[in-house]
Amino acid sequence: MHEPERDAAPTIRPAEADDLAAIAEMLARLAHHLKPGFVPLADLASLTRFGPTGLRLFDGLIAMRGDRPVGLCLYTYAFSSWRGRPGVFVQDLYVDPSERGSGLGRALMEAALAREAPNGCTFAKLEVHRGNDAAIAFYRRLGFEVEDDYYTMAAETGAAEAGGEGAARPPA
After folding, report:
1. CATH of 4-162, one of 3.30.70.2860, 3.40.640.10, 3.40.630.30, 3.30.1050.10
2. Fewer CB within 10 Å: C terminus or N terminus of the chain?
3. pTM to 2 decimals?
4. Phi, psi at 135, each rounded to 5°
């Protein structure tokens, strides 16, 4: 049967306070997809505190099909001293399984870059799990390349414990 709602592309817009619970749910689905059983600590409280309606330590876009959230792009800002320009670091890109292959992932990435272009952002970086072949192929189609000259390194600073919140280790 024909779904009229499906004829139009989902609406992509900046994330708002009312979207944060849905974003937390999509992040949990993304984590489960990458590492079944892993539960991220990004919950409504942390998204509210640090996100686009709080301290703005990250920003985001949400894709809606009618009143149903079907995708997101969360990102932070990066500055490249080599380029002498700012860019965006895509932390999470999620597309609901019902929307995969529809072009929504590309649309979310393009919307994030277009939104930040007036701020001088001229590049995007991201990380992708080594075993996520579909995502690697997707990002390559968008023009991303693996940077063999760099390692991703991380260290927990203890700041989370000082604030009374636990720190989670991302999936290995």
Report:
1. 3.40.630.30
2. N
3. 0.85
4. -65, -40
